[in-house]
Amino acid sequence: MFKKTEDIALPPGSGNEPIYRKIYETFRAAIIKGTLAPGSRIPSVRALANELGVARGTIEMAYSLLAAEGYIQPKGQAGTIVTPNLHVWAAGNTSPSITGRKQTNLQASPEIMPFQMGLPALDAFPRKLWARLGAKHLRSMDVADLSYPANNGLPELRSAIAAYLQVARGVRCEPSQIFITSGYRESLNLVIQTLLQPNSNIWIEDPCYPLTREILVHSGLSYTPVPVDSDGINVTQGITQAPEASAAIVTPAHQSPLSVTLSLSRRQELLEWATRNQRWIIEDDYDGEYRYVSRPLSALKSLDLHNRVIYMGTFSKVMFPGIRLAYLVVPETQLSRFEEVNRVLGNGIPHVTQSIMSTFMHEGHFARHIQRMRRLYAERRTITVAGLTEAFNHKLSIAPQPGGMHLLINTEGNQIDRLLSDKLVNQGIFADALSRWSILSEHRSDLLLCFTNIKSEAEAKILGERIIDLL
Fold first, then answer.
1. What is the pTM of this model?
2. Which of 105, 224, 312, 321 would give a disulfide with 316, using CB separation of 3.0 to 4.6 Å?
3. Which H, E and C letters describe 405-426, residue by residue?
């Protein structure tokens, strides 16, 4: 902790440099040099503002930037501390790192990075409620609960999901059609092993989630990238490119990653193709609940009259990724096939996790949580756009979509998004490059920035300035 006023004396810097920036640089230098050791406490906003004779907002902006880059961590009433286990990678490298973190695999990092993709607002999750429900289930466990979980999922949870899908997503199904899985990988693998033959060709959206391509290749399947426009996947072009395809993997609610919605005419065209040719449509409804300009649209599955759609849902985006819970809705005509394959290949989800989730849904907490998150994300989306817009000052453009959990920032350069993404990662700021999601070279160069964990316009502005600095 700083002991004397001279310990926090501001550097001379540039005459035009904002005061918050000087404070930020002073703290960062002290942390890098070891003057402030990991775990040490730093002055409160109020105390430092009084000491330096500046506004509290100035200190808050400096601390916000330090926290966003991973140098410090707020600890509530315990104050703010230098991030534990922080170390400098090498001499001259001013980017923070956490011991054990693999900088090449940020999605696996235990730390929440600014703009990190795929993460809901973890700070807003009702942890105390979840803990109370968990404690209740642990206290009431009997001998039967210690045995192997049901192959296809806990009956109570399957029933809760079926009821939720009918009301919220327009999907009519029986609990027996629900298969509980551990996530997207297991869901997609279960579909592949049950319905698709080796060497089959699959339509995938272009651009699309990179993991989808990897799973298909490792499963011995080929894929055809079908371009996406403002109406979603171009079905006519898909038929022209690969009329023999056995299935199509689509994200109709918010195309991943462009966030456009599959239009009604395209939905009907896709269903007609699948019905006429006896093909399968695999619908990944990963964040369909989050739409901000109107009510969430019904799932593509709700229009399926001929049982050609396999619906995949997940709790990773609406709850938290660590829950490792997802589900499939399969046609009744395919139940026996899925049950047999799942008996052999299914991972099995812990009974207690399914029980807590079941209670969370049956008691109405799940529906209320989604409503709260939809309001919160609308607010955080607005403040993030406002902060970035001010920081970018027309140098970069933002393309907010009607729904989803991230923004697209156009960098107007051929794959410059990859270079900028790598630079930002080295500064402790997560930014994904759209060109890495694309298969065809003509796709534009954008950054993908998740806004769900951005808490203030000031924070967004500071992070936006760092992006501009690296252009």
1. 0.78
2. 321
3. CEEEEECCCCCHHHHHHHHHHH
